[in-house]
Amino acid sequence: xxxxxxxxxxxxxxxxxxxxxxxxxxxxxxxxxxxxxxxxxxxxxxxxxxxxxxxxxxxxxxxxxxxxxxxxxxxxxxxxxxxxxxxxxxxxxxxxxxxxxxxxxxxxxxxxxxxxxxxxxxxxxxxxxxxxxxxxxxxxxxxxxxxxxxxxxxxx
Length: 156
Fold this sequence. Notes:
- By secondary structure, the chain is mainly alpha-helical.
- It has one domain.
- Helix content is 44%, strand content 5%.
- The chain contains seven helices and two strands, in the order H-H-E-H-H-H-E-H-H.
- Strands 1-2 form a two-stranded antiparallel sheet.
- It is globular, with a radius of gyration of 20 Å.
- The termini are far apart.
C-alpha cells in the first residue's frame, strides 16, 4: 500500500462520551469550551477538513455511564435503515429523543444520575460561550483554584 491518507466520508457523524471525574464547575466549563471550540483532529487534519462538535447532553453520576461503543450501537440500531449521509437533526433526535439511545441506555445504569439536555443544556452552553468571549478572568480564576507547589529550601 502506498503512503496514502485515509479519508472519512463527508458528513459522517462520530459519537463520543467524555468522562470527567471529581471536577469543579469551572473545570466543566473549561472542558466543554474546549470540546465546542475544537474543529480539527489528528496530525494532518488541517489538510483534510473541519468538524463541528455538538454537545447533546451532560450526565451527572457517581459512576461511569455506558460506553461510546454502547451509545454508537444503540444509535445504529435506531438508524440502520437510513441512507448516508444522515442529517444531523435526525442523528441528534435518535440520540436524545424520547425513544433515543439515551432513553434506552440510561435506565440500565446502576445508581442515581441527572441529565442536562434541551433548555438547561442550551442555557449552560450559552454561559460557556459568554465565558469564552473574554476568557482571561475565567482562566485566571481557574488557575488560581489549583494549589501551587511549595518551594523547598535547599540544605547547605
